[in-house]
C-alpha cells in the first residue's frame, strides 16, 4: 500500500497549524514559564543524557510530533528493521547493522541464514587476529612485530574506523600507530607510506564491494610499494582484507584466509560494527571493541522498548524534523566539545546525508517537503572562533547539537572546566540572546554617548531563540561512543521514516563515478577528449597541457 504524502497526514497538518502559533514563541519565555522545563525535556539512556529543552517546542508540540511518529509508522518500521525485513526496497535487502552488536544468545534467522551465529563467528576470528597482532605473535616477514596499521578504504570503510580510533585514543595500544588512507589523491597514500616501514606494517584493504575505484587504486599502489621491498611470499603477513566480495579479494591476491567477511545487509555507513571495525579492534583491543558493541546494543534495546515520548533517538529525530520542517532550518551544526571526537561531524555527514539526502519517497514519488538538512560542524571551542558568529547573528537559524563528556581522560581539570563552561554558556547564549535594551544598558555603563549607543545597538543585539540539544556522557569510552553512534543511526532512521525515504541506498553517488571514468581515460590519453560542455572541455584541455 502506498504511504500517504507527508503533508496530507492529519498529524502533519495539526503540526502546521500549531507551528503558526509557535512562530511567536521565544525560548526565554518558555523557560520563564516553566521552571521544570529541563526535567521535563531531558532523557537518559545507555549512558547518555539528552537535554532537548532548548528547542522551540512545548508539551503540545511533543504530543503532536509523537502522533506524527505513530501515524508514519516509525515503531512498525523499526520493528521490521530489527526483524530482518527487506526494508531497503531499492536493493531488496534487509538492514541489520543492529544485529552486528546483538549478544551471542540472540537468535535471528534471515533467508535461512543464522545471522547472529555468523556475526559471532567473524567476531571470534577478529579476536584471534587482533590478539595476535597486539601481543606481538603476528610477525612481519622479517620476524618483527607490527608497529603500523594502514587502513585503505573510503566512505563507510574509512570514516567510522578513523573516527572511532581517534575518539578512543586513550585506550589505544602504545606500539600500534594507526594510519588511514582514503583519497584517490596520491598525496594521501604517499604521506602514509613515507611514515611506515614495510617490515612492520599491516595493510587492511577495507571495501564492502571491493570495486571502489579509490580503494582499489590505493591498494594496488600499496602492494607495489610493498613488493619493491619484500618478496611475494611476504604478502599474507602484511595484507588482509575486509569485504563482502570474496572473489574480488582473491583476484586482488589476498588469501581469503586473511579476509574478514561481512554481509550485504550492512550498509557502508553503518558498518563500523562489522569487520570494517577491525582497525578499531586492533587499536583498542577486542575487549574494548566488545564494549563498543555493547554500548550500541544498549541504545538498540532502549530504541526498541521506550515509548516514543521517552525514546532518545525518536526525540532527537522528531525535534530535528520539527526544526527542518516548521522552523525552516536548512542545516544542523554538530559541536563536540571533545577534541577526540573531531571526526564525528564528518562521520555524521555520511550517516545522515547519504541516508536521507533523497528527493523521492520509497514509492518513487517526489517528496512533498524538504528532507535531510546539511550536517556540518567542528569541535568546540574551535568553532566558536570561526563560524559561531553566523550561528548567533546570521539570517539562517542553525540548530546545534552540543556533545560533551562530564569527565576528561586527562587530569588538567582547569582545561575541562573551561571547556564545559564554554559549551554550556554557548547553548545559553543561543537560547537567550541579548536584547537591544540589555545592549543599551551595557553601553550606557561604559559611558558611551547616546548617538554612539544607538549606532552600535543593532550590531550588538543577539536575537537568541536559537535551538540546541546537549548530549552528555560521563566520559568518552568505548561503550559511550557506541551508544552515541547508535543514537544518531536511529535518529537518522526515524527521520527517514517520517520523510518516507529509503535511508539505506545511495544511488546519487553513481553518476559522478561513471563520468569520472570517461574523463580519466581522456586525461590519460587512452581516449580522445569527448564532447562535453565548454567548461569541462576547457578544464580537461588545461590538465592535458600541463603533463
Ligand atoms: O566499502 P566500499 O564498497 O568500498 O564503499 C565505500 C563507499 O563508497 C560508496 O561510493 C558509497 O557511497 C558509500 O556508502 C561507501 O561507504
TrEMBL record:
Q: Which family does it belong to?
A: Belongs to the GPI family.
GO biological process entries:
gluconeogenesis; glucose 6-phosphate metabolic process; glycolytic process
The protein's name is: Glucose-6-phosphate isomerase
Checking Pfam families in the record gives: PGI (PF00342)
According to UniProt, this protein's pathway is: Carbohydrate degradation; glycolysis; D-glyceraldehyde 3-phosphate and glycerone phosphate from D-glucose: step 2/4; Carbohydrate biosynthesis; gluconeogenesis
The function of this protein is: Catalyzes the reversible isomerization of glucose-6-phosphate to fructose-6-phosphate.
The record lists the organism as Massilia horti
> What are the catalytic residues?
354 (proton donor), 385, 513
Catalysed reaction equations from the record: alpha-D-glucose 6-phosphate = beta-D-fructose 6-phosphate
What keywords are annotated for this sequence in UniProt? Cytoplasm, Gluconeogenesis, Glycolysis, Isomerase
Example GO CC term: the record gives:
cytosol
NCBIfam families, alphabetized? PRK00179.1 (NF001211)
**What does the record give as EC number?**
5.3.1.9
| Entry keyword annotation includes Cytoplasm | yes
Q: Which domain of life is it from?
A: Bacteria
PROSITE patterns named among the record's database cross-references: P_GLUCOSE_ISOMERASE_1, P_GLUCOSE_ISOMERASE_2, P_GLUCOSE_ISOMERASE_3
Record localization: Cytoplasm
Keyword Heme applies? no
List the GO molecular function terms.
carbohydrate derivative binding; glucose-6-phosphate isomerase activity; monosaccharide binding
Under the heading SUPFAM superfamilies, the entry gives: SIS domain
Major place of residence:
cytoplasm
